[in-house]
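We treat protein structure as text, and this decision shapes the records that our systems exchange. The tokens are whole numbers drawn from a learned vocabulary of local backbone shapes. One such record is reproduced below, unchanged from the form in which we store it:
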Amino acid sequence: MGANDNRGMNSTSPIEGVARLTDWGVIRARGADAANFLHGQLTSDIAHLGASQARLAGYCSAKGRLLASFIAWRPADDEVLLACSADLLAATLKRLRMFVLRAKCVLSDASADLPLFGLTGSQATAWLADATPSAVWDQRGRDGRSAIRLPDAAGQVRYLLCAADVASPLSPLPLEVWRWLEVRSGVARIEQATVEQFVPQMLNYEVLGGVDFQKGCYPGQEVVARSQYRGSIKRRSFLFETDASASAGEEVFHSDDTAQPAGKVVNAAKQPVGHPSGSLALVELKLAALAGGSLHLCGPQGALLRRVELPYALPLEALPAG
């Protein structure tokens, strides 16, 4: 089977439970200028972020390459929280602090005080009760907790819960199963292995609401805008299954061009029980690589990649025929 084979998932068993997200961390921005400061640093509108909202956002270098990605929400007028990959939190926090200057904004690592949990399934919805955010990217806060509705994955409702502790009747969910749902959602997360590898559109961020083209300047804004309006988006992210073990940062090769990689693994996770063995991977690719031939992991003779349908639509130019 080749790169354009859309073999779907073969299990409809519901996934229920709660996972402690040890691979995520939280940056806290506090102060009268916290929202405005981050508004000038990130790809999304943070200045007008409402108390009942959350947003996907990117943090770019001057060249428009993503240094980090965030789920951002605003539990108070003078506070913004940024959930990001734990392995790059320290470097990201250090870099953001360099640009605070005279702004009334204090940035800190709040991961120990505000651990994150991933909740999925109908039992999670029932447990959250009237604190359940109803629409994707809605946020509900109560008693020091914040619950965010994330995009669904494999037909499963998902929530990000920020709380000091979760004492609930929900079953423990292995982190690797939550990671699989995260990859299956098609919403990319920058990890240490992929820092400065992608402009936001390569990860479909503008399709997912992670880029606001109406807001003011931020680092890399000219590059991001130029990619959007000059029709120069030649790379996108797609889902694939493979029988091998895949990891973020690994290169992908096309059968018709073995001399150079055609793309890179953005995020990957082990397939859960009831699905094909191996890994599910979100892969950033040259669009031309989807026109024919086959794709392989880590080298021209590496494990075959089988394309899986994304849970959202991409612009037509990102869908070559064939």
Q: What stands out?
A: The longest helix spans residues 175-184. The first strand starts at residue 17 and ends at 20. Residues 192-318 form a domain with the Elongation Factor Tu (Ef-tu); domain 3 fold (CATH 2.40.30.160).
